[in-house]
Design brief:
The complex is a heterodimer of chains A (166) and B (358). Chain A is mainly α and 166 residues long. Chain A is 96% helix and 0% strand. Classes of the chains: A mainly alpha (166), B mainly alpha (358).
Chain lengths: 166, 358
């Protein structure tokens, strides 16, 4: 201990204190502050980036869930639409079938009516023609028969006999 | 890749140490008694541990006072500033005459003396000559300055590498884990997240300063700065001052009026606690000083054993031991820096600790 005090150098103490404080102040300004700030910035940057990535992941998951939901809904809607369309199609087909049937029936009826009318007209025509022919024939016959007297009388008799029968 | 590297190291070791060992053997005749050799080694170790006014790399011939190195400026305050080169002392062999005053080197200290260099002794064989205030740029001061410059360039370079890129380049990549370690494992756990930023500059500077200067002490230049009590005192004093001037009310309350103890105990505890605030930095000072000194003494003693044994078994053995111890000293260099920083952080932490319920 004695030797220690003997050896103590005040000059060295002074220089050490002076140089060390100088170094401390210089390094604080030019090295430690920039270094620690840079490191801190970097660390907070990494922290932020990790947080952002985590958030993005969560958002992504939410989005995925939304997408799934939407997809499901869309699928259900499509199913419903398809079903509806099928129903409409079926209905339309049956409706048109019915309508067609009605129309066809109507046309058939009209055709039948027309045919009936034509038939009647034809029959009437034939009747008229037959009547005219008959009258002509009858005229011719009568004209021939009335050429002699006997036959005229006989015809009158026949006719009278017919009328009686009638 | 590795083999040529080791080969180179071995070559360098053989060239340097082999040469110096041979030179030693030439200069010391074999018939020299072992007692004086031991004395010489002891003196050499003692000399190695001391600060010096010259920058001596190695001594060529002790007898002829031939050294390789360069002188350093001597700055004295003795009724006015006196500045002269340490070459005037001729490594302690002569008295320096400056403006009519005579100065001599006595055990590495500058004392005032007369033209003949007379040293007066008291009963305990202590020199009673007047000692002027010595602000000389000694070998240790040169090294402190070198480390300061080295650190300044190292860390400003590191700071610059952050400017364009969030990831450091070059030296910063090497140092960043250490800086982060000090922040995350020393400062934050001991001081707390709220206050640690105020102390980061001091903790980082003191850690790197002690570490680098300890490592340089292990180089063949052999300048060990931290085994000077003046250096460790300066560092411990800074820790003490920072602790005292940044302490909050809670800290002082725990010293002078310990809460939750009987009044009698409060009175008893106050002086103990007050003493404790001084003992804490004092232990920092002694710990660093003693560890580094002890390491160097043991390492040099083992190296010295090589010259005492001078045979095929003892010398390689002591070389191996010295090698192993050097590796241990590398660890101690970092460990002491870590302990100093850690304990400083602990004291700062206690100074800013918020009040909490017991």
């Amino acid at each position: 201990m004695d030797k220690l005090i003997e050896q103590f150098s005040f000059g060295l103490f002074f220089w050490q204190l002076f140089l060390f404080i100088g170094l401390l102040l210089l390094l604080r300004k030019f090295a430690w502050k920039p270094i620690l700030n840079a490191v801190e910035d970097r660390e907070s940057g990494i922290q932020d980036a990790l947080q952002a990535a985590e958030n993005a992941k969560k958002e992504m998951q939410n989005l995925q869930a939304d997408n799934d939901k939407l997809l499901k809904e869309a699928r259900a809607e499509r199913e419903a639409m398809l079903k509806e369309a099928r129903e409409i199609k079926d209905k339309m087909i049956s409706d048109s079938k019915e309508q067609a049937k009605v129309e066809a029936d109507k046309m058939i009826q009209q055709a039948q009516a027309v045919i009936e009318g034509e038939k009647k007209a034809a029959v009437a025509d034939i009747k008229n023609q037959v009547a005219n022919l008959s009258v002509e024939i009858a005229e011719k016959v009568i004209k021939e028969q009335l050429s002699n007297k006997d036959q005229q009388l006989k015809l009158v008799d026949d006719m009278l006999g017919d009328i009686k029968l009638n | 890749m590795q083999r040529p590297f080791y080969f180179k190291i071995c070559l360098v070791v053989v060239l340097f140490f082999g040469g110096s060992v041979l030179a030693k053997e030439d200069s010391h005749p074999v018939e020299e008694s072992k007692g004086s050799l031991k004395e010489e080694i002891k003196e050499f170790i003692g000399h190695h541990l001391l600060d010096s006014h010259d920058f001596t790399l190695y001594t060529i011939d002790e007898e002829k006072n031939e050294h390789v190195g360069f002188p350093l400026p001597v700055i004295l305050w003795d009724n006015g500033l006196k500045i002269f080169s340490s070459s005037k002392f001729h490594h302690g062999a002569s008295v320096a005459n400056v403006d009519g005053n005579y100065y001599a080197l006595y055990h590495g200290k500058i004392v005032k003396t007369d033209a003949e260099g007379t040293i007066n002794y008291d009963n305990h064989h202590h020199a009673t000559n007047e000692k002027p205030l010595d602000f000389s740029i000694t070998k240790n001061v040169v090294f402190i300055l070198l480390v300061a410059i080295l650190m300044f360039f190292m860390f400003t370079r590191m700071a610059k590498s952050y400017k364009n890129n969030p990831l450091p380049k070059g030296i910063g990549r090497l140092l960043e884990p250490v800086v982060l370690y000090i922040r995350d494992d020393i400062a934050i756990p001991n001081i707390g997240k709220k206050h640690y930023k105020r102390y980061m500059s001091y903790l980082l500077t003191v850690f790197f300063f002690i570490w680098i200067i300890n490592l340089l002490g292990l180089t063949p230049l052999g300048v060990n700065v931290t085994n000077n009590i003046a250096v460790t005192l300066a560092l411990a004093l800074l820790t003490y001052l920072i602790t005292t001037f940044t302490a909050n009310k809670n800290y002082w309350k725990h010293i002078f009026w310990m809460p939750d103890v009987p009044v009698f105990m409060k009175v008893v505890l106050a002086p103990i606690e007050l003493l404790g605030t001084i003992i804490k930095p004092f232990s920092l000072m002694i710990r660093l000083y003693a560890n580094i000194t002890a390491g160097h003494v043991v390492l040099m003693s083992i190296l010295g054993m090589m010259f005492i044994f001078k045979n095929w078994i003892g010398s390689p053995l002591s070389f191996g031991l010295a090698f192993a111890l050097s590796l241990l000293e590398l660890l101690v260099a970092a460990l002491q820096a870590y302990i100093f920083t850690m304990l400083s952080a602990l004291y700062f932490g206690s100074a800013v600790e918020e009040h909490h319920d017991h």
